[in-house]
Amino acid sequence: MAVEKVYKCDLCGEFTDRAELRRLAVRTLEDRPEDADMVDVGPCCKDRPVSDVLAHGAELRRVAVDGE
């Protein structure tokens, strides 16, 4: 029995194939490139503004730095 892997869009939560996701690195100027927060955006959210991705990345950073 084969298991099909599906991934979730970080912005809306819709499940999609990995090939359809775009992984975007969100960071500030002070961050090193390897310290960027990764946001997976699916085809369902391809027309959403970049500010939504930046806001989600900032929330990921806040949780990582300050905890929940």
Broad shape: globular
Helical content, roughly? 25-40%
Radius of gyration: 13 Å
Structural class: alpha+beta
Give the strand tally: 4
The tally of domains stands at 1
| Biggest β-sheet description | 2 strands, antiparallel
Mean pLDDT: 87
Biggest sheet: strands side by side, in what order?
1-2
Instruction: Report the β-strand fraction as a percent range.
Output: 15-25%
Which stretches are poorly predicted, pLDDT < 50 over at least 5 residues?
none
Describe the structure.
- The protein has 68 residues and is α+β, with helices and mostly antiparallel strands.
- It has one domain (7-66).
- It is 25% helix and 21% strand.
- The protein has 1 helix and 4 strands, in the order ββββα.
- The protein has one helix at residues 50-66, and strands at residues 7-8, 15-16, 22-26, 37-41.
- The strands form 2 sheets. The protein has a two-stranded antiparallel ribbon with strand order 1-2. The chain has a two-stranded antiparallel sheet with strand order 3-4.
- The longest helix is centred in the C-terminal third of the chain and has 17 residues, at 50-66.
- It is globular, with a radius of gyration of 13 Å.
- The model has no long low-confidence stretch (mean pLDDT 87).
